[in-house]
Amino acid sequence: MRVFSFLFLIFLSINLSSQTNPLWTQKKVKNYLPHMSVAEVEKFLTKSDMVIIPVGALEQHADHLPIGTDFLNGVERCKLIAQERDILVAPVLMAGQSPYHMGFAGTISLSAETILKVHLEAVESLIIHGFKRFIIMNAHGGNRAITTLLVDQINQTTEGIAVSYGEAVGPFYSQTKTKSAGYVPPRTLLDRHAGTPETSSSMYLIPNLVQMDKAETPKLTLPPHMNAMLPEVIAGDPTALLVFLAEGLKQESTGKKTSSAEMSSTGVWGARNPSESSLERGRTSTLRSIEAAVMFIDKWNELRPYKGGN
Question: What is the tens place of the pLDDT at every residue in 158-175?
Answer without folding.
Answer: 999 999 999 999 999 999
